[in-house]
Amino acid sequence: MPEKESALLAKKAELEAAQDQVFEDAKAKGVDPKLVDEAKANYKRAQALYDLDSNIKKSVSGMRPNVGEAKQAAKNPETVDPKKLFGRINNLYDSGRLQEAARRAGCGRSTGACERSSDSTQADREEPSYC
Questions:
Q1: Which end of the chain is least crowded, N or C, by CB within 10 Å?
Q2: What pLDDT is attached to residue 121?
Q3: Angle (deg, nearest 10), helices 33-57 and 82-95
Q4: Where are the beta strands (DSSP E) in 1-131?
């Protein structure tokens, strides 16, 4: 089993290096570095959201309310298993994927503080920070 894990980790590192090279090539060809960095951050966040979605769905059983007939859904309602969800969310947190999924545009990575422009609305300033 460790050989398979090592092979997967090596492939992951190879793919990440290739992806980084694509971003560097874009910068070298004149694409605005801020735009490239934003694209890279958006990609990472999208993947983290995908992981979060997948882990939540793996913690759910039963019939989705919008699938099938109401009688069937009432017999087998969709429910979340909190024990499964807790473990999966903790694993995402430990890996940093949960924080990446929850990060909003404009949030600083090092401080965890959201950057607010001076023209942000009162409602924007009252929103909780998920950075």
A1: N
A2: 43
A3: 160
A4: 60-61, 79-80
